[in-house]
Amino acid sequence: MPDQQNVTTGGQQMKEAVATEQASAFDPVDCFKQMILARTINDILKTRKTQGKFDFYIGCAGHEAIAGVIAALRPDDWLTQYYRDLAGWLWRTRDPYAPIRGAYARETDPMTSGRNLSEQFSSRRFHILPYFAEIAALAPFCAGVAFAFKREQTGQLVSFHCGDGGVATNDFNVLYRAATVHQLPVIMVVEENGWAITFGGKQWGGSVVEWARGGGAHAVEMDGTDAVALYEATLPLAEHARTKGPVLLHLKMGLLDPHSSSTDIYAYRDRAEINKTKEARDPITNTGRRLLQMGLLTEAEIERMKKEARAQVTQIDEQVQGEPLPSGDRLLEHVYSWPKEPTVEPTGAPKTMTMLDAINDALVEIARRDPGFFVYGQDVGGPRGGVFGATQSLVKEFPERAISSPLNEQLIFGIAAGASMADGRARCGEIQFVDYHQSMAQTARLAAAIEYQSFGDWNCPVLMRMKSGSGGGGPVSGSGAGGGGMGHSHAGEHWFTDIPGMITLCPSTPYDAKGLLIEASRTESPVIFLERGRLYRSVAPRDAQGNVIGPVADLWQVPGGYYTVPMRQARRIRIGSGFLTGAIVTWGIMMLEAAIAAANVVAQHGGSFDIVDLRTLMPFDQETISAALREANRVVVVTEEPDYANYGRYVHSWIVQHHFEDMDMPAAFICGKGNVPSVPYDGPEEMAFYPTSKDIEAVLINFATA
Prior knowledge:
The chain is of the alpha/beta class and 706 residues long.
């Protein structure tokens, strides 16, 4: 990750570099050679799978002419390759070793180092985004990459490839929607071979070309078995995408093999249909015929090329079989990436702030140091700064950096995530309510897997902010019902803390909110930043006598300027000065409830309590919890989530598993009352649901008097 001071210079150099890249001169014979090499790799790997050399293979036969499309692009254009695009991989990378190493899951596999299935094309060096097994799942990320290219005016485009089934997915429709709304430099290549796995039905009604045109894309349909014709057709389409907006290229192809090594082609396809497809839609035959007509090759030369490819692939195959498998010792490598720079201590004068003010401040500070930083979400570019006003300062100081989006959470996540991958730095999406995240769930889960599955070749430093929990201003104990209701009140942490590779943050105070948000912009892993609605405008908590609780109130004093708070470090807050009576593990609005409860119990019974404010929910700070428990020997975990399999239950079970013998009484647990679908809108039921300081006090009194 570049230093903050070098962002502007580095970005300008990148623009100047990509502006000079042009597509290399097209050699149709060389393109055909890569197609033959792809078919040869395909045939040999099919045989090796049958021999039991590895577990799975999915082939390219029938799709080799896609090399003509890739050849028409510039080397700096980005790709998402369909798993049948082996010939396109070979044209772009000139690396026939990679797909063979991938098939054998060798450590030397440059795409995933053996972690993903074969033909899951991926290369940061060659601008090939890491493929996911979920069909078309990279489409939202492609939208974000293209969004970054357009914002930075690099002149690059993104070519997204999928089969006909990909068009039916939500992911593809997110890309199409984003590309047409923002007129992005995207080519959406649909490689239709007429088959899903064993089903040959339609994936859309009517004409996909007419559908695409109706929404604002330029669309073309053509035969997809002649690489020379595809190259000639793609050149003007690429220019259109760069200068005018999105293109859909619908290619009619033929699938010459079964879907994969797991299926028998003759179990679901008629022999006559298979033979007809091979006769009419074999790209090796059709492109070879074109080159013969052009006088560029003879039949003898084509046969010689096939023999040379066979010898080359056989040699590579023998070499790769002797290469090492990955070691099991590396299992936990490349799950998370943390900021490489040291913590930035505050230097500005502190002033009293609400959490909402602190978030506004943080976004502006990030924008000042990173010219490419933006926030993308519903209404965030309006004068109010979104529905809660979290981007109001950004709108005032950097209006072009607060960008209002269409109403689609998966689209919002995809734009921010893809742009972060293109820029190598955090780009921020805002979801109004965590309850609405469901449409982006798959995209979020896959973003968290990118570093792991690519063995560190790729990162996705997306930063997603969202309001969580109920409304209202301050602790439930003092402010009463917030009126969130269905769709506006989930805590939400359980949706993200069970995703390996995803960092989940939930600050409890304005000081930590600002510092953590800035720190989150410096990591290379995806971050979910949960902002409790009750904390947006909350003041520091007070005890039953109306006294400000000093150790917590200090965290409402927020320094001006740029500073960071480290992730993965919980904060210990001591309430009271006597003997340590117990520990409270919590986060978010429940930290304030815990502080009120602890202050009240200390006033009545003396002693002291340690509040362990997690701040980073996953991966959480096990060392700080352990240290507090070994001192206190008594603990309660407090969460506002509904009961059942929530995140708080996980923290509680971890404590019991690792510290059973350190405790002199059972670990207590407090959460929302009952496993209800959502917090009700009406006041009485809402108040009946949420834990308050009174619930916590009952447990702490037991600690103090036992």
